Amino acid sequence: MSINVYLNWFTTDEQFPFFIQYGGHDEDMQLHKHIDFCELVIVLNGHATHIVNNEASFIKKGNAFVINGATQHAYKDPYDFKICNIMFKPDMLKYAGPDLRASQGFQALFILEPLYRHLHPYESKLNIPLSNLEHVASVISDMIDEYHHRHQGYQTMLASRFMELAVYLSRLYEHQDQGVESNLMHLANAVSYIEDHYLEPVTLEEIADKSRISVRHLNRIFRAYYQTSPMAYLQRLRLERACILLKQTNLSITEISYECGYNDSNYLTRQFRKTYGMTPKAFRKSVQP
Predict the structure, then answer these.
(1) Burial class of residue 168 in the structure, from the number of CB atoms within 10 Å of its CB (0-12 exposed, 13-18 middle, 19+ buried)
(2) Which of 76, 95, 183, 203 sits at a 20 to 30 Å CA gap from 228?
């Protein structure tokens, strides 16, 4: 039987819903689900069996993975097992800049793996080389000291170090070839390319080519992970950008359509109405003070 776990069990700070600790498990852990937070786990020593949605895999020193709120997991048969738990709200990842969000490693580790792990049995994880684990452990140690001492500016410092860690782990993941499911990396290639070029004229064939797979296979794996198509995903990014420009600028609808990768303002208006139930002009009026 699984239990539900909430972030306020660990911290009641509503202004900064973040928690970091060293964890040591000498006995089996009960299967549980994180209701309102994600967890980045880094194995610092030993090994254990990781149960994810009743599927078992072996984890050891140097492994790192993210568990999202929809996934049940537990540890069994721990041996000299020491980990670092970093618990955070999903919106903390908004601090990731567009350059990081466009990286294959970030997409794979923080977005795609946690999502796919919830939907299907999935054992892939980052394997941090021992030569790099020392640096990761040092960053973790600094973060835990910062969290415990809570000097002035500690929240900003922790958010900054968390993103530093996210960048470092994403880079390691991107250069990890063995043991990473090919579909996931193909998809990460596609998502990275779309998020880097969605404001430009982009075709489905171009995305597939950059992902080194066929259009048919790209559509299939994209729908399996995201329950949508690559072009619908691109469309969503463009419309979200249009919303920002409508709120924050005085650009005309025609100018915004070109800024968002559309050649025709009428097409933008049709897509906007279809998605949001109103025209861009009506949306702008609704968000004006």
Answers:
(1) middle
(2) 95
Model pLDDT, residue 114: 67
Express each pLDDT in 50-106 by its tens digit.
Answer: 888 777 878 888 889 888 877 888 888 888 899 999 999 988 888 888 888 878 788
Going by C-beta distance under 8 Å and a sequence separation of 6 or more, which residues neighbour residue 270? none
Closest to 110 in 3D by CA, of 101, 98, 122, 120: 101
Among 174, 194, 217, where does a domain finish?
A: 174
CA dihedral sign of residues 87, 225, 113, 211: negative
Which of 78, 245, 88 minimizes the C-alpha distance to 166? 88
Mean pLDDT of the chain: 86
12 and 111 housed in the same domain: yes
How is 132-164 classified by DSSP, letter by letter?
HHHHHHHHHHHHHHHHHH--TTHHHHHHHHHHH
Please tell me whether residue 36 adopts helix, strand or coil conformation.
coil
DSSP-assigned states of every residue in 213-261 = S-HHHHHHHHHHHHSS-HHHHHHHHHHHHHHHHHHH----HHHHHHHTT
Residue 246: give the domain boundaries: 239-287
Do 145 and 246 sit in the same domain of this protein? Answer: no
Domains held by the chain: number = 2
pTM, to two decimals: 0.64
Assess if residue 183 is contained within a domain.
no
Which residues, in sequence order, are CB contacts of 109 under 8 Å at separation 6+?
Answer: 64, 65, 66, 126, 169, 170, 173
CATH number for the domain harbouring residue 105: 2.60.120.280
